Protein 1
Amino acid sequence: MSVRRILAKTINTDLEYEAIGIDLAKNCVSVALLTTDGEVVCIDRLDYSELEKSAQVLCPTTFAMEPCTEMNYLVQKLEAWGHRCLVIGGKNVQNYVENHYSGQKTDLNDAQALAGRTHQKLSNEPRYRSPFIGDLTRGTF
């Protein structure tokens, strides 16, 4: 994953994203968008309404988030719009932040860690899935 980190105010819906990490808070979200070119675009404090508006027009992509109360509602909406959702445990995010961001646990670093872990998972995912493995489109790791 690229080291280059770009700060933005809104989600550019014209680009395709490999993974989108979102750190959910009470009134807003922090978002890290990993483009197919390897750039990381970060948005600090995006309103839920802006996230939903952008997600409706985005090409299908993978969203990653930590488990919390807002997660269930958002996952249902995102999957209805054709996106894939992954739920990543807090311990995995914490380990990623410690290893890649000198242990500085901020909302933006959490969102970037979620995007990074999703990129790792997608890179290691086999191209052919046996029917005995089950549906991996939604899972926790």
Protein 2
Amino acid sequence: MIEDVSGTLHGWIWRPNLLPFLKMTSDFVRYSFGSEDEDAVLTGLADTDPEADRWFDYQLAGELSVTLGLSGGEDLVLIDIELDGLTERFVTQIGVLLNVFSVYRVTEQPG
């Protein structure tokens, strides 16, 4: 069964939550988010500015192909996020992540 891929989510998270958020989102869409992805996102994010409407787009091509839009220059404590290409199921799941990552500080535990 093919689900309609038309969902878009907008939100924000705390900057320290960025990498855990991206890793968990990647897990949901079955994309293997690695150190090269991490470097690309952090480099691209440095050149963004939500006030000037400058965003960095990054593709997570897993079970779905999800486009992440990120904006939050180096001086900002919040990261604006847009996710496009989500099915209804993923809108619900990742919507919960956005809520949690905008309220709580999430830390990774060593393995």
